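Repro:
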Amino acid sequence: MAKKPKKAPTPEGDGEGEEGAAPAAGGGKKKLIIIVAAFLVLAGGGGGGFLFMRSRAAHAEKAASEQKVPVAFMDVREMTMNLMPEPGQTQPRFLKLKVALEVRDAKVASEIQPLMPRVEDTFQVFVRDLRVGDFEAAGGTYRLREELLRRVNVAVYPAKVDAVLFKDFIIQ
């Protein structure tokens, strides 16, 4: 009987092992391609969803701003009031004040117009009890604005004023 020559062993193994290893390497590449493709699909879907939600939010903001009713402003007549004197002060100090009231719409402005003498009286009574030092402190004018807003809303109830805006504010 003739002997078959033996094949030299290779690092990968014998011939049968090589055939078995080739499909496994191809299967690994297929898995890698599937994973990368799935990742790209998910990333694309996430990015598309993000852009969709962002444009939807922008559209909602635009719709809300279009529905906003224009505001109305009411001028309060200019008032000059004397302030309480500081201790040891002999010369009187005055505050010249001109404000505008911001209301939701013209209908509310027409409700408030007959009550303007009450609003002016409320301003006069409150400001006459203030001293110059009340305005010099940090946030003094801000506190004045908030207090005037609170008092004017009490005076015009059930109507509502949204803001008190200073047009002229001079201390002499």
